[in-house]
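Retro notes
What went well: the complex prediction finally ran end to end.
Inputs used:
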Amino acid sequence: MTAQPTLAERLLNGDKRALARAITLVESDDPAGWELVREVFPHTGHAAIIGLTGAPGAGKSTLIGALTRLRRQKDRQVAVLSIDPSSPFTHGALLGDRIRLTEHFLDPGVFIRSMANRGALGGLSEAALQAALLMDAAGKDDVFLETVGVGQAEVDVIDHADTVVLVLMPGSGDSIQALKAGVMEIPDIIVVNKADHPLTDTMIREIRGVLSLAPQRGWRVPIVKTEAGRGEGVDQLVERLDEHRAYIEAEGTLSERRRRNLRNEVLALCTFRLRRRLEEALGEDAEFTRLLDEVVGRRLDPASAATRILERFDAGEAASRR
Amino acid sequence: MTAQPTLAERLLNGDKRALARAITLVESDDPAGWELVREVFPHTGHAAIIGLTGAPGAGKSTLIGALTRLRRQKDRQVAVLSIDPSSPFTHGALLGDRIRLTEHFLDPGVFIRSMANRGALGGLSEAALQAALLMDAAGKDDVFLETVGVGQAEVDVIDHADTVVLVLMPGSGDSIQALKAGVMEIPDIIVVNKADHPLTDTMIREIRGVLSLAPQRGWRVPIVKTEAGRGEGVDQLVERLDEHRAYIEAEGTLSERRRRNLRNEVLALCTFRLRRRLEEALGEDAEFTRLLDEVVGRRLDPASAATRILERFDAGEAASRR
């Protein structure tokens, strides 16, 4: 009689249902989920983590569908994690996209998952990153992270990619403005999707202008024109992805980037737990309510209230360790 | 011989340069800025804080320009705080907007300020909220907060408004998707700007559909059609703003909302300071580097590393209080 394989064993063997179950545990902040990540973590680091970011409607999902098809032709295992409140993955905005994805839903070599922002205080990006680790451990060769490019939570997620692809659409210059302003970091690859649009060449000139002002690094950011809906230009995008991968592996950038990203993840987890501890402490504290009354009455300012609350929190923490 | 008035006194007298200086102090996290907020806080609570949110390009700045003109005709003092990386206030994307605002720049009764997201860890929204308090204390009757509607930092800012206005543009359904998905909270007023667009009526039908599914509250969310560039519909928007103000004052919703918002602000300040303390502690800690090496080598998972780091942090905090 052999023992039933554990969830971790099934996940490491690439069992799709085990992976789905594991991500649900992580997403619901179940201690078993964290335990599982701990167990499989030594088996991570193999997957190429590719982040795709860009405004809603730029065609990220369609592009990922097309990329997935090409990767599968090379027999690579693919996972998609979509962190996008308005994503077609979750809400079916675009029928075409859904049809294109349905094709992949039936493929055992493709795992697709979406995560919606439920307003968790910093919890979403942590859960997303753990999910990416689980996908990696399950033997996926390519993990595509899809996010809307605005906002800190999305930036936190995309920062964990080895390669960042910015997807733009001709005629919408907002992302270019963000690049120009230095709010958005320069990505590794820029895609102009829906390149049959008459404003495509104008947009490419604008992008070149922004890139020429950016500090020069070793890697020259390529601009790829695609029409993801018809699969056009996607093979060139795959080539650029492979070139970027080869470049960061050869230059040591990959390990540098992963070190920085893991550092940020550890810090984010620490902050998240400190905040939770604080909220638990305040939930039982009548003095907090009294201080809040003072703030609401405009007798005590929020920053001074925060100082007093932290003093109480520190004292409570010290007492609990005695 | 009379003493020079202090910065706080000048600010409370509505001195524009004092207000500008005060916000710079807060923005650069100068202790003098926090001290100033503490001093003037008892004089806050008068201003109507109106948040305008919506995708880049929806015309928020133009709308604020038009609203400002109408408010000034009633001799109300206006302040505008724009938290938008791609905002025309900062980066001059749209020449027309800049011209419209230049008119207001010269008006002593209007104060305009932009804040760019510099990647501060939670610092931006705190600085923005302190800036809004300073504007309030300086005697502004209306404070307009402008943000791009996606992302946690922006949500944190908009949560501090008494009235939230969502600005949509016909033909871009992303914000409606976000409403539908429950990611974006139902605003108090919805504006369909650029209402000369052929898809305006389709969009209004869609919005009505979403609103009909939302839980019914006492306030019926009005939909206002505007063409802000030509000033059309802006007087109706002002009427809806005044109605909403009267409603929340009569129903007690205003004080409820402000209590919730002040609570969140106090908590955010506490979390921000805990994170800063943690980073300072780690900066000097060789053991942190060693633990990080273990994580990078995939021998220790990020969550377990976070646990060990917090244990060290707690011990250090306890020791520093001895």
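What we learned: The longest helix of chain A spans residues 253-283.
What to try next: split runs per interface for comparison.
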